[in-house]
Amino acid sequence: MEFRGRQITAYRFVFCVLNREIASRDHIVRHRCQNRLCINTDHLALGTQADNKRDDWGHWANGIDFDYL
After folding, report:
1. How far apart are CA 11 and CA 15, in angstroms?
2. Is 28 within a domain?
C-alpha cells in the first residue's frame, strides 16, 4: 500500500490510523499473535526491534498465547 508517496504495510497503516499514533522509522508494529497477516488492532503493539525479538523468544519458549487467537 502506498501512503503519501511511501510504501507502507497494511497492518502498520491500520494501527497508526486507528490508534492515532505516529510510528517513527525506529519503531515497528509488533504482531503479538505471531501472524504477520493479522490487522486486528488488539493484536498489534508499537515497539522496538528488541521488543519484537523478545516476543519471538517468548513464543518459541512458551508456545502460543491463546488470548491472541
Report:
1. 6
2. yes
Q: How far is Cα 41 from Cα 18, in angstroms, rounded to an integer? A: 8
Rounded CA gap, 45 and 12, in Å?
Answer: 10
Rounded Cα–Cα distance for residues 4 and 67 (Å): 35
Give me the pLDDT at residue 54, please.
Answer: 87
Q: Tell me which H or E stretch contains 37.
A: none
The answer to whether residue 69 sits within a structural domain is no
Question: pTM value?
Answer: 0.68
Residue range of the domain that includes 54: 2-64
Write phi, then psi, for 47 (nearest 5 degrees): -170, -170
At position 66, the amino acid (one-letter code) is F
The total domain count for the chain is: 1
Residue 45 maps to a domain: yes
